[in-house]
Every structure is written in C-alpha cells, then in structure tokens.
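Researcher: Next entry in the queue.
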Amino acid sequence: MFCLNDLLRSLTAIAVTASLAGASLAVHAQQTDQPPKRQTQQPQKPPAKPRTTTTPAKPTAPQAAAKTEALPPSQVGIGTLGKQAFMVDPQTSTVLLFKDADKPMHPSSMAKLMTIYIAFEEINAGRLKLDTRFRVTERARNMGGSRMFVELGSEVSVEDLIKGMIVLSGNDACVVIAEGMSGNEDSFAERMTAKARELGMTGTVFKNASGWPAEGQWTTARDLAVLSWRTIEDFPKLYRYYSETNWSYNNIKQDNRNRLLRTVPGTDGLKTGHTEEGGYGQATSSIRDGRRLILVVNGLTSMAERAQETARLMEWGFRESANTTVFRAGDTVVEAPVWLGSLDKVPLVVGKPVQITAPTGQTVTPRVVARFDGPIAAPITKGTKLGTAVVTLPDNRTVEYPLEAGADVQRMGVFGRVTTMIRHYMFGWLS
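Model: Structure for this entry, 431 residues:
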C-alpha cells in the first residue's frame, strides 16, 4: 500500500485540475539481477485495458456558474466561502480542492477526531473495551459548550463516551475519556500531538481533548484530511459510529450536527466544529459506487452556510471528476523470470486496484513501470511482495503500488537444478 501522507505532502498532486489526456499506457519491466547476475530483456505483457468512467458532466446553469465564479477563489478547484478547504480522493491521493489548506487554523471540535482515533486504537489493541467504564470528575461535568450531560460521580462506558463525542460532540465526554486513559487532560493532549506527528500531521498541536479554544492549539485542513482517512482505513469496524444521525443519553435526545448524513447521498462521517475565532468547519467523508472523497472546510459563518457549502463542494467533487481503473486487484502487471523453479516465470500482480483520478469524461492512460529483482529464486509463495509498480501520470506525478507473486512456484529437484546451472554457466540464458 502506498504512503498516503507522503503523497498528500506533494503539492504536485493538485494537478488534477489540468488536462490529463494524451498519455499512453505501457508496462515496462525493470529488474536488478541477482545471481547468476546476467540481465535479459523480458517480453512485456500488456495490462488489462483500463476501464474509463465516462459519465457526462451535468451542464451548469449560467446563473449558477456566475455565482460560483464570484466566490473567493481557491488555489486549486472551485471557489469556496470557506477560509480553508481541502478535498482529496484518498484512493489515488489526488487533490481536487486546495485553499490555504496548510495555513494554521483552530481545530474546534474537529480535534475530537484525534481523541476518538486514540480510543479506537486502544480498543483495537485490546487495551480498552467498549464496556470499560470511566468515572465522571467535577472538571468533566463542568465543561461548557456542546455536552453529553454526564452526571458527576457516575461511571460511563467507553462506547457511550464514543457516541457522546461523535454524535453529541460532547466536550464533557472528551474530558472523561482523556482522564480515564491518561490520568489528566494535559497528558492526553501530549499523546494526541505525538500521534499527530506519527500520522504525518506536521502542522498540528493539541492542547486538550475537545478542541476547546486554547493558546497554541492549531491544525490544518490537510492534516485533518489525513486524520480522517487514517480513521476510515485503520478502523473499518469502529468507523460505523460516525454515521449515527442521533442518539439519546440521560433521556436527552440530540441530533448529529453533521447534516450531510441526512442530505448528501453516501455521507458516512465525520465531524463538525465551531469556535468564535475559527468559524464553522467540518471534516466530511462520502462514498459512492466504491469511490470515496474526503473534504475539510473551515471558516464559514453559520451552521446553515456550513451545511450548504460542504454539500455543494462534495457534489462538485463527485460530478466533475471520476476514477479510471488501470489494473484490477489480482491483475498481472508483468511476468518475472524464475531461477531454479518448477515454472520459468511467475506473474507479478497488484493486490489492490490501481486507479487514477481525472476530470469527468477524459480518458487517461498512464505509463506503468514494473520494478523487481530478477531472476527470482524459487521457491516462491503466492502473495509475497516481489516488486513495485510505478505509475507515472501525465503531470509527471508518480504513485507506487506493491507487486505480489500471483502463484506458488516450487523449487526444482536436485537433478533439475544441476542441469539448469550447467546450462547457464556453459551457454547462458539463451539455452
């Protein structure tokens, strides 16, 4: 699996807004010899023909287009009312929208994404359970802003605290879980910042578990997109909590502030936020026909504007761009020679689909280079990583995907190995 964080750090990824047509798909094998240290040209096996999504873009009314053009411009993508905005297709690491996405901003309640990430991590590791209970302190009970309404001295389960943080945006729930896991909120905030660095969030510093305004607490729209994707990718079973539209605790029913869960098809998360200094913001993820987009917007002026603007941007992302499959999971990219094996060659396949993003209606066929050390010595186990497929896009951006053995290859018997080695050292590979 390629490194999403590194690719997101490359501003060349924003070139999806330029024309991407005109490149040709060709698979080239690059191999570095192992013993017997003699390189040979390998015949190329063309990959499966890319499947291109050709859904025509819907025409935009002149009045709507004029209104969009009048919006504050972005460095990449359409204009937006948000002060900061970042949209990415995480499956291809293609940035569709970029507006001051590396500029420091107040995280507000979107900081809860990291508190929840750490809780999910502890649950996955078995160090924390959903039915583990933490006691409510006076500090937690007295938290202002959005609340879960926990009672002083009561014990609340981790599962309820997770729902309280996600659905109700409870600042009190954040304090309960931070104190329960780390003893105090300051220590937990240090852990949040350390985890941010580990995930590649270089522009983020946390000072508390809830996102409550604090001096020196900052994040960026890009960093929150990275955190959103890692949450989805790392915790597929626990991520479901982000799609709950309402929840009741202490006989008080509250709706999820993420209105897109009810208005934009395919939306399944993540988190809203608001501070006086930073305005209204939201980290959103939607998936349609297997394609996911992640959007982070901040600096809007009201809840209504936040709901309308995030919905407009998400619809734009799905409408104006599409993914093309270059290789499906299990497709053979190239066949590599085998040394002393029961087969002369082994197929090198991709374990996950190789996709690229382009403007809707455009056909994009990138150049693909297969790199591996060969000949590959037998025995070979199916699924073993043996090389890399390097996909070069028309904008010269490259994305790497691991290549795996597509079949088991047994080692030759003694007689076969002796015969093959004699032929090699006497006549070379042409024998």
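Model: The first strand starts at residue 27 and ends at 33.
Researcher: Noted, moving on.
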